[in-house]
Amino acid sequence: MMSSRKSSPHTRRRQDTGEIMQLVLLATLPGMFVLTYHFGWGILINVAIASLCCVSAEATILALRNRPAQTYLRDYSALVTAVLLGLALPPLVPWWVVMVASIFSIVVAKQLYGGLGSNPFNPAMVGYVVVLISFPIEMTTWVTPVSLLPEGSYHPSLWQSIVIVFGQATPVDGITGATPLDLFKHDNGLLVSQIYQQNALFNQASFAGVGWEWANFAFLIGGVALMKKGIFTWHAPGAMLLSLALMSLLFWDEGSSESPGSPLLHLFSGATMLGAFFIITDPVSSATSQRGRLIYGALIGILIYVIRAWGHYPDAVAFAILLGNLSAPLLDRYTIPRAYGQVRAVKLEENK
Amino acid sequence: MSKLWTIPGGIYPADQKSQSQAQAIGSLPLPDKLLIPLYDHHTGELKLTVAVGDKVKKGQRLTGLNQVSAQHAPTSGWISAIEPRLIAHPSGMTALCIEITTDKKDQWIDQIGYPDYYNLSGAQIREVIAKAGVVGMGGAGYPTAKKLHQAAEAHVDTIIINATECEPYITADDMLIREHAEEIIQGIDIVRQAINVKTKVIIGIENNKPEAIAILKQQTKHTDIEVLSFPTKYPSGGEKQLIQIVSGNQVPRDKRPTDIGILCLNSATIFAIKRAVINGEPLISRVTTVTGGACTINRNYHTLIGTPVEFLLRHNGFDNEKCSGLIMGGPMMGINLSSATVPINKTSACILAPDHYEMPERQAEQACIRCGLCEDVCPASLLPQQLLWYAKAENHERLEAHNLFDCIECGACAYVCPSNIPLVHYYRNSKGSILNANREKVVSDQAKQRFEFRKARLLNAEQARKEKRQSRQLMMEATAAELTNDGQNTGTDAAAIIKAAQLRVLNKQASPQKKIAQLERTLLSAQKRVEEAQQRLNEAIASGSAEQQAQQRASLESARQKQVKTQQRLAEMKAQ
Questions:
Q1: Contact criterion met (CB < 8 Å) for B324 and A3
Q2: B229, B210, B219, B231: which is closest to B270 by C-alpha?
Q3: Considering only CB atoms, which chain B residues are within 8 Å of A334?
Q4: B376: how many CB neighbours lie within 10 A of its CB?
Q5: What residues contact residue B411 under an 8 Å CB cut-off, 6+ apart?
Q6: For the segment B325-345, what is each residue's pLDDT rounded down to a tens digit?
């Protein structure tokens, strides 16, 4: 009868970390589906390779650290990292790029810092940035959305995709192309209206680039569902999207050739929604208090815009988030909430 | 209808109250033995007025008069033992207990009640309450008379009756209100009489007790007492939380509710006050819920203080095999009982015997992923995840910066933690080690001060001696020089010797003043020492053991003697 339950409370809600992570995985499904629909099997192959690499890397390191691998693997955190990485990497990227990113995420960015809960940076973003900097050519080649493929050509089949990923074949010409943010980065001579008219990515799109807009929309849906479930609060994503929108509105010059793009483009293109709802909400590497998360989100939103508009990379979510992660401990230090009954410091004059 | 406020955070556990509400409050047969714990963390150990072998009657006081939370015999019988026994305490500690072997006659002493209490002064009513040993029955067990006294001193304008009972499973207050609402209303009137008749009264109750609310509303129809029900949320029943819900104000840190004009009393305490004042019945019985899947009967009982928990359990068809751990109190803040022999005390609102399905064994603690669920539910607006981090690192400075001591240990954070971290346990440990460290620091600071003082004193004395030596030498040299000059005239050494002797006499004649000055210095330091000893004695009385007190008393006495002696000698010197 006498148990180890020595200390109150004696009861707890039956929801564990594993279940939270499973919900997060579930919420990525709409986005994963839309990405696969528009960009082909490459996305799913990325996710599969990343999952395999992440989980086995996690198990290996846990074994080396003499931790019970089974208990820790059941928290599903390695799988979440894998799926986010798989979704962020370009489809049909060579398998070893995915592998390097996965192993770096788990081994260096997570386990070397002490495992789940101790990593200062989001592991998936660290892995992503490592391969983005190391293998720029592989990492900047995106597949053309299915509706823009030349007449008569299709995305490679599942088998063909696997063959391509493992380097036994090269993709057919025309199935890779620029992303909407690439266009804005590199088509500087044109007015925004001209870009929109000339490029199929935009003139066939509803608001922010064929494929991309719906993928972002799907991540938004998944994210809002998680928020409703109480997995995270609105503070960080809300602040990030708001600050990104405000920045792009502030510098929106009605479409000159210098323009970095409209608020809609920035909100619904690139990795914006994936970042806002699935990466910056990673509680381990984000700021802690609600006020802290507001500042943290806003900071990342501003950084995304700054790097997109004036930096070298067309998309900037990963860099902005890593910079945000860096500032989180400082934010935590200065955003401790006022506790019950705590009176603000009384000025000395009032004590006289 | 007054406005209601809300508290941050909070959780919504299944309330599990219906099991024990099916039947009215029952009464129990008399146990063979009762065990009255003499430990009270507000007053230390109580002083005994009975000895082993004494016969006692029901309601007879067992402890000294000057104590504010006296203990009484819950039934008639004889004192069969006075010895340390296991009591209900988180640390599983033992404390001095009086064992009463009951004679089953249940014979009362002469009860002196005051049905005409409105003729008594506030202070008189408070004295009756103090003598009856009434304490806060909601959990902390703070002596009620003391609280009422503070309220009267502070000119409290609002009394909040806490009928919230927000812990799951417990229905003791709920059932008490349903069956004794009239007496509770009388009790409220007595409390008003004891502090100030014009005080506003609000009864705060969660809306999951519709029967109790209806009865209270009916009973208060023709009075100015207001019944406020608010949405059920744990921990609305915490004193500070209830005050925030009802008044919108927060009790400032390090202050009492009376400091913001509010007196908060539990409904069971009010009932005890009524019984004490009108019926002359000291606090010897309380309503206790016995519930949980490991008991076949789930019900409330009028339980005598001192009833062993195992007696209650036996009465309710308790199955040891089914039970996953005995708890005194609720599942959120109750304490784990390591033995069923411990007695019911004045704050035992519930004995919970959950089965393995209701409260399974705690699973292994996982890493904190800083998900922030704990932060969302904290009623004190703390950052539990940060506190955990610093508690593990034993970083006392950061723990205090994160307001560790504002944690009320309600357990909401640990309840929602997906990683099964016993957060409250960590916080309790940290609070304990910070308090210890602070105590040690005070002691070592004092030692350091004493050492520095002694060093300075020795240095000064040495300096004074040196100066004296120098001046004496100078004088000798001067005399010698003079003598040599004289010697040139007389040419003898004898004159020099005489001159030196004369000088010594001169020196000695000067010395009474010096001696008086010295004695005055001695007297000053003796006075200082007496003051210090007095202070240490006070500290020992406030916190230390009897042994320490005796020690401090002895040192104070010797310091005083020294002071007196010095005074005498000084007087003699001055008289000469």
A1: yes
A2: B219
A3: none
A4: 19
A5: A8, A9, B332, B333, B424
A6: 899 999 999 999 989 999 999
